[in-house]
Design brief:
- The complex is a heterodimer of chains A (about 290) and B (about 375).
- Chain A is an alpha+beta fold and about 290 residues long.
- Chain A is built from 12 helices and 8 strands.
- A 3-stranded antiparallel beta sheet of chain A has the order 1-2-3. Chain A has a 3-stranded mixed beta sheet with strand order 6-7-8.
- The radius of gyration of chain A is 24 Å and the shape is globular.
- Chain A starts with 5 loop residues before the first helix and ends in a 7-residue tail after the last helix.
- Chain B is about 40% helix and about 15% strand.
- Chain B is an alpha/beta fold.
- Chain B has 2 domains: about 130 residues, Aspartate Aminotransferase, domain 1 (Alpha-Beta Complex), CATH 3.90.1150.10; about 240 residues, Aspartate Aminotransferase, domain 2 (3-Layer(aba) Sandwich), CATH 3.40.640.
- Chain B has 13 helices and 13 strands.
- Classes of the chains: A alpha+beta (about 290), B alpha/beta (about 375).
- Chains A and B meet through strand 2, strand 3 and helix 2 of A and helix 9 and helix 10 of B.
């Protein structure tokens, strides 16, 4: 069974903006029945050129439906210039992430949006014109499209490319060609280890952030402090400020400042979000401490 | 209130029968001896294994000595094919079907890379095997024909007895993956030419982790697992004692329940199927209604996608499965439905309901009541459905 985030489930069970706008300013249609998913996106602009209304119709799995639904919410209120900058990553992140093998759903969302904007600008073309040379015949994916998902998502393997745009997922005959495109786009970078994903605390829901912080303290930080007779307790989280109290040996340790900055903050930044910083709880810091352990 | 589970996914796995659990309970903490041991404590377990083997043999209509216990259906399939190939190294052709379970198909395709010719026999739109094509392919180069007894996705039953006869006339080993058939329909190997047959315990209310390979007396087979002398040297490894004893009990229960499987379960399946086909427009049956397991129904709901249907069913506690691409993690829909030529419009929206004797009419009625709403809801989202 797929592990979908609550947000994906919410948008699947309660999809927003289902339907088709009559006489829309832009229409984008991508995918097909054969591919297993398809999306028709329509939008209307207000007098200031911002997207006033967007609606979708989608054939596909839960993540395809959720992606379409969330896309209509993301672009509402945007100018077309802003909307054109929405990437598949933005869509996936808005949903709190998608399973790797479902990332192609987010790419389909971006493609439909692009097609709809093209349609508005070009007027007549309804279908998204294929750009470039078709590499994957099974799913009709072009070299341009493959290059784009590689660049936007920093992909390194054929399997990843398949997860993001389906290319190579049918008969598999084009895998060699995809490999070549990866080499061309990524060059030597192809074999380098990937940098850990940078997450900003605003991308996390509050409850998620607190759970992750608590988990990191329990698993990564406390065992190290315990080894020196100390302990740490999470008091509160305000935005990116994490308030903790040190107990036991740590409380009197002259190196508290060092411990906090170097160990706790580094671990929280590594495992939770890059912008977190740590403060010691005043009340507990001012209380007299005793050896309790 | 805890939501009830309505389990219509019995071709995936089944509930362990309460009688089976009762039977195997003592073999964990009390009678945990090794049946190979010389002491009475272990030896008494050996007696229970012998009894279980006899019950399985009775269910299959074969000799107890022809029953080899394995770890699972997949191991049985792998052993049957690989063991036959290495026992008859001079022949280089393998014949199978396009709709086999991956436990057979992957092995055959692997052999293709090792110098074997592999022929995959096709099926028609109802999922029936092309027997004429098969007849034309079985020749003196053929080492093994491996064709399933009944298909896991559609329930279609293949003419394995006819195939076995053909193979025996031409001195070719015939293996059948009977994982979906055993326990659901009567099988009598004493009246048959089948050389090798695989079954899996957890499909007939025994626990997971126990399988059987039937090897007809006189069939040459190179062992797959080497080690101790268990299973007469044909499958080494300490016996899965609770699994074997559980399977023995499950075999006994299956024999008692054949009438129920073929009458009551079939009645429920038919009711579920006909009501759904009637109440949901643009739905179609996949498979051969004239030759099918009594518990399986595979229905396509056109223009919508299977995973979405499953998740909405799941909200009501209803468990089923789908041949859609999205549920498997692959991008292509079920190889079985594609081999049958089921169009993409229908293959992506296929749902398999597989029942057991533990299902009730109330569960069928509840599901039939909920289905049209689910289908309409997804069709409203679909760009392929005109208003």
């Amino acid at each position: 069974m797929w592990e979908y985030t609550d947000k994906v489930k919410d948008h699947f069970f309660n999809p927003r903006n289902v339907g088709e706008i009559e006489n829309p300013d832009g229409v984008g249609e991508v995918g097909s029945l054969a591919c297993g998913d398809a999306l028709k996106l329509t939008f209307r602009l207000d007098k200031n050129g911002r997207i006033k209304e967007a609606k979708f119709k989608t054939f596909g799995c839960a993540s395809a439906i959720a992606t379409s639904s969330v896309l209509t919410e993301i672009i509402k209120g945007m100018t077309l210039e802003e909307a054109a900058k929405v990437t598949n990553r933005d869509i996936a992140e808005y949903l709190g992430g998608l399973p790797e093998q479902k990332m192609h759903c987010s790419v389909m969302g971006r493609e439909a949006l692009e097609a709809a904007i093209d349609n508005y600008r070009g007027g007549v073309t309804k279908k998204h014109e294929l750009e470039g040379k078709v590499v994957c015949n099974c799913f009709g994916v072009t070299d341009k499209e493959i290059e784009r998902v590689i660049i936007e998502n920093d992909l390194r393997t054929v399997e990843e490319v398949t997860n993001y745009c389906k290319a190579g997922g049918g008969c598999g005959g084009c895998k060699g060609e995809i490999e070549k495109i990866i080499e061309r786009v990524q060059g030597d970078k192809k074999n380098e280890p990937r940098e850990p994903a940078k997450i900003h605390s605003r991308d996390l829901r509050n409850i998620e952030k607190i759970q992750l912080i608590q988990q990191t303290i329990n698993e990564q930080i406390r065992p190290a402090l315990r080894a020196h007779g100390g302990n740490i307790e999470l008091i509160d989280v305000e935005g990116s400020k994490v308030i903790v109290a040190f107990r036991g040996m740590c409380a009197q340790c002259k190196l508290t400042e060092f411990t906090m900055k170097e160990v706790v903050e580094a671990k929280l930044r590594e495992f939770v979000a890059e912008d977190l910083y740590v403060e010691e709880d005043r009340d507990s810091a001012n209380q007299p401490h005793h050896h309790r352990e | 209130m805890k939501m009830r589970t309505i389990y219509f996914d019995n071709n995936a796995t089944t509930m362990v029968a309460p009688e089976v659990l009762e039977e195997i309970r003592p073999y964990f903490c009390e009678l945990y001896g090794n049946p190979s041991s010389m002491h009475t404590f272990g030896g008494q377990v050996g007696i229970k294994i012998r009894e279980a083997r006899e019950k399985v043999a009775e269910l299959l209509g074969c000799e107890p000595g022809e029953v080899i216990f394995t770890g699972c259906g997949t191991e049985s399939d792998n052993t049957a094919i690989a063991g036959t190939l290495s026992a008859r190294p001079n022949r280089r052709k393998i014949i199978t079907s396009r709709v086999e379970h991956p436990a057979v198909l992957s092995v055959c395709r692997q052999m293709e890379g090792q110098g074997y010719e592999v022929v995959e026999i096709g099926v028609d739109s109802k999922g029936r095997l092309d027997f004429d094509e098969l007849e034309g392919q079985v020749d003196d180069e053929t080492v093994i024909v491996t064709i399933m007894y009944a298909n896991n996705e559609t329930g279609v039953i293949f003419p394995v007895e006819r195939i076995a006869e053909l193979c025996s006339e031409r001195d070719v080993v015939f293996h059948t993956d009977a994982v979906q058939a055993v326990g659901k329909i009567p099988i009598n190997l004493s009246q048959s030419n089948i050389d090798l047959l695989s079954l899996s315990g957890h499909k007939l209310h025994a626990p997971k982790g126990i399988g059987v390979l039937f090897v007809r007396k006189g069939t040459r087979l190179t062992p797959f697992m080497l080690g101790g002398h268990q299973e007469g040297g044909r499958r080494a490894g300490t016996e899965n004692v609770p699994g074997i004893i559980g399977l023995g009990k499950a075999a006994e229960l299956a024999m008692q329940n054949f009438d129920e499987e073929n009458n009551e379960v079939k009645y429920l399946r038919d009711k579920l199927e006909s009501s759904m086909l009637q109440s949901c427009p643009d739905s179609r049956l996949n498979g051969d209604p004239d030759s099918r397991l009594p518990n399986t129904s595979n229905i396509s709901f056109e223009y919508i996608e299977g995973e979405a249907i499953l998740l909405l069913l799941d909200k009501y506690g209803i468990c089923a499965s789908s041949g859609s691409a999205c549920t498997s993690g692959s991008l292509e829909p079920s190889h079985v439905l594609r081999a049958m030529g089921v169009p993409f419009t229908a293959a992506h929206g296929s749902i398999r309901f597989s029942l057991s004797r533990y299902n009730t009419e109330d569960e069928v009625d509840f599901t039939v009541e909920k289905m049209p709403g689910i289908i309409n809801r997804l069709r409203e989202l679909s760009p392929f459905v005109a208003k």
